[in-house]
Design brief:
Layout lengths: L7 H18 L8 E4 L2 E7 L6 H5 L5 H6 L13 E5 L2 E7 L6 E3 L13 E6 L9 E2 L5 E4 L3 E5 L5 E5 L30 E6 L3 E8 L3 H11 L13 E4 L6 H14 L5 E4 L22 H10 L3 E6 L10 H4 L19 H14 L7 E4 L22 H22 L6 E3 L11 E3 L6 H11 L16 H12 L4 E4 L14 H13 L1 H14 L4 E3 L13 E2 L16 E2 L6 E3 L3 E3 L9 E4 L4 E4 L5 E4 L2 E4 L8 E4 L3 E4 L13 E7 L5 E7 L13 E9 L5 E5 L10 E8 L3
Helix pairs in contact: 8-9, 11-12
Beta-D-galactopyranose binds next to loops.
């Protein structure tokens, strides 16, 4: 502590000394970079917090995958990267070139292009504005020039993604006279991404990538690779009304069977417990008198049970007293809040879940409300017994619950695929999908795109709809997403609730099941190679930035209402890539047609195999029953026969292999038991599917032989050469 109770002269000298030393300590430090893993560079600025995103997630790099990506050299001019500690905070600066675009900064819902945005990255329930408060505010961005930057801090980080111009910049904007110069801009050129991290140091990573997709892959692999869901996790999920009893669930399941709708997971909402908000984590004896019998009866039908929880503990829970010493100063809905960084808290809490739920057959959790709303979550003045600050806990609580619950399933050698409402950097490998209470269909698609830049998965869950058309349109998009789910906790909606479109909804749900070999292989590529299964067009080769010309609408340019309007690059935020070969362009309620931007190369209609275009904008009018989907030239889509449940371990399935277009093609099909972690010991296989054009002008398909001793679940194989 400084005390200025000195004589006047000494005081002046002291002030001078401290301001000078401040001035020098604030001098730009150019961090030095060390290659931590192939193509992954790290630096440490100042004295970072001991507890950060990677400590919370304990992500382990997938070195095998990283080695397979081509690495070259540090991808930026390191002399332009600056880190400074100023007033106990870290200031960071990364360069930006004129034509560069930025993607990422977490799960945003309205914008894909992040250049020009100002964000405070803060875990929260999304509130309708892309201001950094979101379920997964991942401090990772990727540049169109093919590199990525990750700030490993569990702090509320302020980001100026190319706003602000420095006086000493070699690229400082020219002053222009607004009175006379038409080129005057309300937002002059900025040549940097700048950030403030409210702590005295930080660890930063730079990811190489010859393409933006490679940079994303590297980040994903460095943080563990994507999760490999069980096959059943990619089937159809129905979350039932919150107060449903075992009998009501069984009736609903019978209705699914009777009507011929697929179903792999039933999600129970808060009412499975004797008390919720705060929770007992104990089955309600009235609604579920025989939980084990109930779970077994469903399992006999090929259906798994997922339990809703939030981690806030009721005084009536058997966990309350044991956990009490390890909880925060503040409660949530009068429930105590475990400090999951303390091993006693972690072991007691999840040990109970393991014994009472998972060992008795529960297959997954929906861990709700770990994101917060400031109004009911612990405030930033709360204290946790570990000494970890409330801010750090807020930024990592989602990571901690995912990590620790996933470990329970790992111990049982059972894969899981659940839901969670918060995540953050480092959470890539966790078998959880994000969701929320916001319900804008178009914004849900933008979130799906942004999830692919953030190492998270997102479901545009269908809950309710005002009419049959909206219902069908929403179902179509959940079918082309990481989790095909109806969340009827409040609405009670069933897939067949809108009788006019019952058959169309069923056809979509069946399509999901038929595409299982494709979805499963694409998730394996996320796991082993880091390629996000759902991702934006900007990561696609042949996608031209010319498609995103500078535009300024008349209303934006209106001096009266918006005197600082800026020309913006039109972004593509309503179409996306699903797996290696598919482009999905969802329809929204009220639309009869839509524009689709096709990257270079020929693209074919998924349903008919018809040629649709090549590097151009097209208009499609698909009718109500179809969601527009396009396949790359030479694209191979491995499918299977329609079924009501995903294939279980040891079961064979038939393969129906579709080939599109004129080019020869190849595809790597992944296989394993679909349920356990035995793949970690090498019990998996990749089969090479090839389509070659013979001298006779006929296409010939082959599938490589199974490797001895490796899983082989393939039954009969048939080929469909689409459009011919
Ligand atoms: C919400 C959650 C909903 C539902 C509900 C149950 O917070 O987002 O999907 O689970 O809680 O109370």
């Amino acid at each position: 502590m400084l005390h200025f109770k000195t004589r006047k002269g000494v005081k002046t000298i002291l002030i001078l000394f401290f301001s000078l030393s401040f001035y020098f300590s604030a001098f730009a430090q150019q961090p030095s970079w060390v290659e931590e893993a192939p193509g992954v560079w790290k630096t440490i600025i100042g004295h970072p917090d001991a507890f950060d995103l990677l400590t919370a997630s304990q992500a382990l790099p997938k070195l095998e995958g990283l080695k397979m990506l081509s690495a070259d050299k540090f991808p930026l001019d390191s002399s332009l990267i600056v880190g400074e500690i100023i007033n106990g905070q870290t200031h960071l600066r990364f360069p930006l070139e004129r034509e560069e675009q930025l993607f990422g900064f977490g799960l945003n819902f309205k914008t894909v292009h992040q250049r020009g945005n100002i964000l405070r990255l803060h875990v929260d329930h999304y509130g309708g504005r892309d201001n950094g408060r979101t379920h997964a505010p991942v401090p990772f961005y990727v540049s169109s020039l093919g590199y990525g930057v990750f700030v490993n801090a569990a702090r509320y980080i302020d980001v100026y993604a190319g706003t602000g111009s420095r006086r000493d910049s070699p690229n400082a904007p020219e002053p222009r006279d607004r009175n006379t110069d038409d080129n005057w801009s309300a937002r002059p050129y900025s040549d940097a991404v700048e950030m403030v991290i409210p702590t005295e140091g930080v660890e930063v990573y730079v990811f190489e990538g010859l393409t933006p997709l490679d940079a994303v892959r590297r980040y994903n692999l460095f943080t563990g690779g994507g999760p490999l869901p069980p096959r059943w996790g990619l089937g159809f999920s129905q979350r039932v009304p919150r107060l449903f009893s075992a009998e009501e669930v069984m009736e609903e399941v019978a209705e699914f069977e009777k009507r011929g709708f697929p179903l792999d997971v039933v999600g129970l909402e808060p009412g499975w417990q004797s008390k919720s908000y705060p929770n007992t984590f104990v089955w309600d004896p009235g609604r579920f008198s025989d939980p084990e019998g109930f779970i077994a009866a469903l399992r006999d039908k090929g259906i798994r049970v997922n339990l809703w929880v939030n981690p806030y503990i009721s005084p009536d829970s058997p966990l309350y007293e044991k956990l009490f010493p390890y909880t925060a100063t503040h409660t949530v809905w009068a429930g105590i809040v475990p400090d999951f960084t303390i091993s006693e808290a972690r072991d007691t809490f999840w040990g109970f879940f393991e014994e009472e739920h998972v060992a008795k057959g529960v297959s997954g959790y929906k861990v709700d409300e770990v994101d917060g709303y400031d109004q009911w979550l612990w405030p930033d003045v709360a204290k946790f017994p570990s000494g970890i600050s409330a801010e750090q806990m807020r930024q990592t609580y989602g990571l901690l619950v995912q990590k620790q619950s996933a470990a329970v399933f790992h111990r049982q050698n059972q894969r899981t695929f659940g839901l969670v409402r918060a995540s953050n950097g480092g959470g890539t490998s966790f078998p959880y999908v994000l969701y929320n209470d916001y319900y804008d269909h178009q914004d849900f698609i933008t979130a799906l795109i942004n999830s692919g830049y953030a190492g998270v998965l997102w479901t545009p869950e269908a809950r309710a709809s005002k009419n049959a058309e909206e219902w069908l349109r929403r179902i179509q998009t959940v079918v082309f997403s990481p989790m095909a789910m109806i969340n009827a906790w409040a609405s009670g909606t069933k897939p067949w609730s809108f009788a006019e479109v019952e058959e169309e909804v069923k056809a979509m749900a069946m399509l999901r099941m038929q595409m299982m070999p494709y979805w499963y292989s694409e998730f394996a590529k996320y796991h082993f190679e880091g390629t996000p299964p759902f991702r934006g067009m900007n990561l696609e080769a042949g996608f031209s930035f010319d498609n995103q010309k500078l535009t300024m609408s008349d209303s934006e340019a209106d001096l009266e209402t918006n005197p600082y309007a800026m020309a913006v690059k039109k972004e593509i935020k309503d179409q996306y890539m699903a797996g290696e070969h598919l482009l999905v362009a969802p329809m929204f309620e009220g639309e009869e047609e839509r524009k689709v931007v096709l990257p270079e190369g020929k693209w074919y209609d998924f349903y008919s195999g018809e040629l649709m275009g090549d590097g151009e904008e097209i208009i499609v009018r698909p009718g109500l029953s179809q969601i527009p989907v396009f396949v790359k030239d030479g694209g191979i889509i491995p499918m299977t026969t329609p079924s009501l449940h995903a294939t279980g371990a040891g079961e064979k399935y038939d393969l129906i292999i579709r080939h599109y277009g004129k080019k020869e093609g190849s595809y790597r099909l992944y296989d394993d038991d679909g349920e356990t972690f035995d793949y970690e010991n090498g019990d998996y296989s990749w089969r090479e599917i090839k389509v070659l054009l013979g001298d006779d002008g006929q296409y010939q398909g082959t599938v490589s032989e199974p490797q001895p001793g490796k899983p082989d679940n393939l039954g009969k194989i048939t080929w469909e050469f689409m459009g011919r």
